[in-house]
Amino acid sequence: MTRKKNTTPELPEVSVSDDGEVRHLHLGTPWIQGSMRVDDPFALELEYVQRMMAWLLFVEPTSVTKRHAMQLGLGAGAITKFCHKKLRLCATAIELNPQVLVVCRQWFKLPPDGAKLRVILGDAAKEIRDPMWLGTVDALAVDLYDHEAAAPVLDSPDFYADCRALLSEDGCMTVNLFGRSSSFERSLQSMAAAFGEEALWAFKPTREGNTVVLAQRTPSRPKRAELMARAEVVQERWGLPATKWLRVFKPVVA
Fold this sequence. Notes:
Blueprint: E1 2-5, E2 14-18, E3 22-27, E4 34-37, H1 47-51, E5 68-72, H2 78-86, E6 90-95, H3 98-107, E7 117-121, H4 124-127, E8 137-142, H5 157-166, E9 167-177, H6 184-195, E10 200-203, E11 211-216, H7 224-238, H8 242-245, E12 249-251
Parallel strand pairs: 5-6, 5-8, 6-7, 8-9
Antiparallel strand pairs: 1-2, 2-3, 3-4, 9-11, 10-11, 10-12
Helix pairs in contact: 5-6
């Protein structure tokens, strides 16, 4: 089953496919740009999206509800919904394509804006330079791909420097790196230029080829026992496979 929505000529057509169990968002191609399990719409269905929550390993669990998460590139709204509904924190998303927002609200159970949820329609590169956001974001999720899904559309040292400026002192950025081109090393170098090599952690790629990289505003090297203790809490409280993450999640610079 496929449902389609028209959008402006400059932006790709937004479509939704559904096999009865999992619903997918597409931007003009068969590439999956986001997914939702129909009977559990606020869970994180895709493995790489679950890994985008690795910032939880670096904060006290008791402080989570007081934090602010921002998602650049709404996709199917999975991260924003999870942060809002499951983590119960303040969530902001920035999305360029207004039809993505319409489809998320109509087909992906994205709640309406409210006191702790806000979706901003606009260019993420410009929006994150607004001084009102500086130092206010504790968890920044960057997943910005065009309809070709070949490489990130924003991936320069200057862009990542703007991202770093958004973060609170113990804030983290997680980035989805995926594409048919060999852009991983270039992306990593751009992040290192903005954050410093000591600030970067990376997962091994998923089976689908997504590599999630985490960058800390203030670099730290928690001991494995501390990370495991946090992972156990994350897994028990929010149902994420966090203890398994530690097998495939390491500092980029040892």
